[in-house]
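Tip: read the tokens left to right.
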């Protein structure tokens, strides 16, 4: 029967092609730029400034990674994202604003101004230290650090996986499998109806 052989061929092609399409490690997943001699991945972090606080107040990046912190402003007041270059040091909350500025002078990995426009976005881009540990960041605007506007970047020896460049692999595979199942069910229904139509008395 012609329709039956056509269906068999169609299913055979699907069974061969689907696993190839679903195979992980396609070139698109390698679009992250490598840096340094260790070929480490870029690390992306989202931070929000709201109610004179950093959220999250703690995040983790791998050693030597090229870090991109995307800061979203939710306060109608200026802030800074200023990151200490000193490992495992907790800045005393008793420091005055002038003392805090002096501490960060020539001792920061990044120091970016965050404008007072709500929903504005600024990026802090820098290279994570080679030394694992926790590095404190703070806002240098008068009184903000002292009232709790600070946090810690954890620099980890272990690689932190980068975010997937789109849909996670599992979701893509799931969609492919679901599509295949739907196609097979429709093909089966079509085949049964075709067989019945042939058997139907005229
Ligand atoms: Cu601030």
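Filled-in amino acids:
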């Amino acid at each position: 029967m012609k329709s039956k052989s056509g269906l068999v061929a169609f299913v055979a092609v699907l069974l061969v092609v689907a696993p190839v399409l679903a195979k992980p490690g396609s070139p698109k997943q390698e679009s992250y730029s490598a840096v340094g001699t260790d070929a480490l991945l870029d690390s992306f972090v989202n931070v929000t400034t709201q109610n004179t606080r950093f959220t999250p107040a703690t995040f983790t990046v791998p050693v030597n990674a090229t870090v991109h912190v995307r800061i979203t402003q939710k306060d109608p007041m200026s802030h800074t994202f200023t990151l200490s270059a000193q490992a495992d040091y907790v800045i005393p909350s008793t420091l005055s604003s002038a003392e805090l500025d002096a501490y960060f002078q020539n001792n920061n990995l990044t120091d970016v101004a965050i404008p007072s426009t709500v929903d504005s976005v600024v990026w802090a881009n820098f290279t994570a230290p080679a030394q694992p540990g926790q590095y404190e960041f703070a806002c240098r605007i008068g009184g903000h650090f002292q009232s709790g506007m600070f946090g810690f970047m954890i620099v980890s020896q272990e690689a932190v996986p980068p975010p997937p460049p789109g849909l996670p692999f599992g979701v893509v595979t799931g969609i492919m499998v679901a599509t295949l199942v739907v196609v097979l069910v429709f093909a089966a229904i079509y085949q049964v109806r075709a067989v019945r139509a042939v058997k139907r008395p005229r």
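Residues 52, 79, 139, 141, 144, 149 surround copper (II) ion (CB under 6 Å). Residues 8 and 187 are 10 Å apart (CA to CA).
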